[in-house]
Amino acid sequence: MAFRKLIGAILAATLASGGFAVAAAPNPSAFVVAAPESAGFSREGLAKLDAHMQGLVDTGHLPGVTTMLVRHGKVVNYQVHGKKGFDGPPMTKDTIFRIYSQTKPVTGVAMMILYEEGKWKLDDPVSKYIPEFASLRVFKAVNPDGSFDTVPADRPPTMREIMSHSGGFAYGLVPDNPIDKAYARNVLAARTQQEFVDNIAKLPLVAQPGTRWKYSVSVDIQGLIVEKLSGMSLGDFMKSRIFEPLKMTDTGFWLPAEKQGRLASLYLWSPKEQKLVPASGFMVLDITKPPVMASGGGGLVSTNADYARFAQMLLNGGTLDGKRILKPETVKLMRTNALSDAIMNGDAPPFNAARGRGFGLDFAVVLDSAKAGPQGEGTFSWGGAAGTWFWIDPKNDLFFLGMIHILNKDGDPAIKDIDDDSAKLVYDALKDPKK
Question: Is pLDDT at 51 greater than 70 in this prediction?
Fold first, then answer.
C-alpha cells in the first residue's frame, strides 16, 4: 500500500466532527474464532505478524497496537500489544481510537444508501445539491498581486468525481501549492457548514474536473449532501442506518464521559526530537462533546471490533447478521475503479494503471496485484491519519484491521510502512488459500 506514503500526513479532515455520542452498550461480537489452519493460515506465520507488532512496542516505536484478521467470517488472529499510552493502562480489545480518514468509507456507505433510494445519480453535477458550486473556476497562475489567475471550469464536478477525489477540489493539510495554502487559511478554518461551502466556492479548483486525482475535502462535501438529502444530521443518519443495524456501539462522533477512559493516548512523531511526543494542535479533535458540524472526512472514533463489523458487512456484499445495509451490486460499484482514462493513463501517483491501483467510490482499489502488492485483485482499502489501516480482499474472502494512534508516523522508518509490513506477513502466512 505504497500510496499511503503520499497520504500519511493528510488523511485527517480538520473540520470539527459533530453528531451523536457513542452509546454505552456493550459491543457484541459478530465473529467466531477459528484455528488459523482451518482458514488456510500457518500458525507460525501469524506468530511472525504478532512478533513484529510486539517488537515495535518493545523497542518504543509504539505504545500499543491492536490487529484483527478475519477469513470466511471467522477470526483467525486478534491481538493487542502494549499500552494505550506509554505511561497508561494496557491496550485492550475495546480501546477506542480516532480513526480520522477511515471515516471516509463510512460516509461513502451513507451516500450509497441514499443512492439506492434514488436520491442522487453518479453523473449528476454536484451543483445540483450544492448550488454554490455551479460556477467554479480553475487555477491557472498566481498574479503579481497574489491573486489567482483562473479560467472557467469546463463543467461542475460530478458526484462520481467527488467520490473518487477527481473533482478538482483540494484539502490544504499539506500546503505545498497556492490552492492548498488557501484551503488551509480559509476552508479548514470554517466554523459553519455555510462558511465551509462558501469558502470552497470562492477558491479555484486545482484542475479541470475529471482530469486529476487530488486528495480533497470531497468527503466532507459528501457529508453535507447526506444531511441535505436525508433531512438528518450526518451523525444521526449514520447511527440509524449503519451503526445501530450493525451493532457498532463504540463508533460515533464524540464520546460520553463514561467511555473517555477507553480512548488511546494520541502521539505525534516529532522530527525535531526524533521521537513520539503527546499530540497537540489542530489535528487533535475534541471528541468529549458534541461539536458544531460533522466531518464526513475524518471525525469518527471507533474500535477494532466495531470497524470489523463494518468491514465484514462490505465483504459480505452489504449485509451482516441479517441486516442489509447495501445491495451487493452497490458494494461492487464502490470497489470498482471510477477514475477517468486520462488519470489512469497518466504518470502522476498514486493511482494509475502502471501502479496497478485505481480509486473507486471512497476506496482505493487494487486492479493488478502483481504491481500493487500482495492483496488479491479487487481489494479495497483506506486508512487514517493516526495510523489506523484496513483492507478488504474479496478474492481471498478476508479482511485485516490495524489500529495505532500516531500522527505523522511516516517520520519514523520503523512504523511508516506498518500497513505494507502487515500485508506481507499476512499473505506470507496464507499457505493454503483454497481452504
Answer: yes
